[in-house]
Amino acid sequence: MINQWEEIIAFLHDGGIEIDNNQIESSIRPLALGRKNYLFAGSHNCAKRAAMFYSFFGTFKKHNVNPIDWLKHVLDNIADTKMSKLENLLPQSFKK
After folding, report:
1. What is the DSSP letter of 84?
2. The whole model's pTM is what?
3. Which residue has the higher pLDDT, 11 or 78?
4. Which candidate, 68, 96, 74, places its Cα nearest to that of 87?
């Protein structure tokens, strides 16, 4: 503990640092539960697809984006989007 003392008391010097990580743990709890479900996905490919969906829905939730509105936006705009601008179609770039 002595070797880590500066890191341990860092929150005393900066009021913006949280003393615990409950907020982060709560936000990743659904992913941890999903990870247990991947064991029963049926195959490795199914587990990869399930993980992809969990990631997408986690991104929607984090950025307060409705998945159906986003998907409609993507389907309406993907044909006119240049390859170099595909990041504009990601959920975090979606404007309501």
Report:
1. G
2. 0.54
3. 78
4. 74
Backbone angles phi, psi at 56, to 5 degrees: -60, -50
DSSP designation for 88: G
Find the radius of gyration of the CA atoms of the chain: 19
Angstrom distance (rounded) from CA 31 to CA 80:
34
pLDDT at 74: 93
Which residues fall within 8 angstroms of residue 70, CB to CB, at 6 or more apart?
60, 91, 94
What pLDDT shows up at residue 76?
95
- CB neighbour list of residue 78: distance below 8 Å, 6 or more residues apart: 89
Q: Are 38 and 51 in contact (CB under 8 A)?
A: yes
What is the distance between the alpha carbons of residues 83 and 76, in angstroms, rounded to a whole number? 15
Report residue 38's pLDDT band, with 50, 70 and 90 as the boundaries.
Answer: low
List the chain domain ranges. 22-62, 64-96
